[in-house]
Amino acid sequence: MITIDVDPVLVHLGPVMLSWYSLAVALGLFVGVWLTLVEARRKGIPTEPIFDSALWAVGGGLVGARLLHVIDRWDFYSANPTLIPAVQNGGLAILGAIIGGALAGGIAAWRLGLPIRRVFDAAAPGVVLGQAIGRLGCLITGDALGPATDGSWGIVYQNSGAMAPRLGVAYQPTFLYEAGWDLAVFALLWAIRRRDIPSGYLFALYAALYAAGKFGLTFLRAEAVWFWGLQEPQILALAVIAAAAAWSLWNHRQNAGASAA
To answer: The whole model's pTM is what?
Structure first.
């Protein structure tokens, strides 16, 4: 068993609180943007407009992540509307971040005249690595836990500020499983990124693999069931997989058309 007795709030700056969760998310965003710029430079894509589109992607991702979390727990937030913007306490739905970030970043890249498929490929390794780092913020907050366990493996929270359902009870650390899956996906993308892969496929592979892992790991969670006996993250994960397949089909047609020309 691992026991966590740490205040989720790292420091109070007057009325503003900096939490361990916020620090992990900020570090994940920094690493994700930095690695995207590194890959863009390697691919010969101008980094200044890439940075601009990355800022839009970060903003869209944060909005999408919080919006999806609030929608999923509307019963609570409708009764406590002042807590809706309190992201420092945890509560960012990563699938919402992927959808919101991809839409905002893609639109920004298109408006800046960037090659969207190559930009998305450059972003894929950094995005999933940033996700792994950000997910580790749940270690202190006690967010995104699995079921209680009586076995030798689990995390027990003692601090009253933790989000664990009950203090002193061991829970499956599903956030660690997800972080491990993210790192495995990152390792694969990083290993094959230099191969002769048509533009757009690396991002599609990232999206499909991450969503598949999210679908499976959600069986260890107990969130609201939407339909077909599946929880909200599982429905969205299936939607992301379908979108990745559609993206790959579009890539194939675009690449085939370019080859014919």
So the answer is: 0.87
